[in-house]
């Protein structure tokens, strides 16, 4: 299995950050009437907040040795399953997607645990 390089991870993290800010702004302005009608504005805001936090968090392991890069994988999975499911739930009011969010939450937790356990010493 070929893993993405550190430069690729920087681009992925930057793209996730860009998307988090863009979706947050779109939710606050363009989608606000729909989200208020569905009663899902807070859900969308939660997705955007966790999305942005973990876009930045995906970049943290890059300062450490390769063994910490696994955390970035967990954070990316978390973004897809947690924030992704909440975005779709908030926009479409598809309630069953709420059951998908905990998978992403566990992925976020696993990423932070991986950094805690395997982080190691920063590279020169």
From TrEMBL:
GO cellular component, one term: plasma membrane
Keyword Transmembrane helix: yes
Primary localization: membrane
Coiled coil regions in record: none
Keyword Cell membrane found: no
Localization (cell): Membrane
Topology in membrane: Multi-pass membrane protein
PANTHER family: TRANSMEMBRANE PROTEIN 256
Protein name, entry field: DUF423 domain-containing protein
């Amino acid at each position: 299995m070929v893993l993405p390089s550190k430069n690729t991870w920087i681009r992925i993290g930057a793209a996730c950050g860009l998307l988090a800010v863009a979706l947050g702004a779109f939710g606050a302005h363009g989608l606000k009437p729909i989200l208020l009608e569905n009663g899902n504005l807070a859900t969308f805001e939660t997705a955007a907040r966790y999305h942005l936090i973990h876009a930045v968090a995906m970049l943290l392991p890059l300062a450490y040795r390769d063994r910490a890069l696994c955390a970035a994988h967990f954070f990316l999975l978390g973004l897809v399953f947690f924030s992704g499911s909440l975005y779709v739930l908030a926009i479409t009011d598809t309630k069953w997607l709420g059951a998908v969010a905990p998978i992403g939450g566990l992925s976020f937790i696993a990423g932070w645990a991986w950094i805690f356990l395997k982080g190691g010493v920063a590279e020169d």
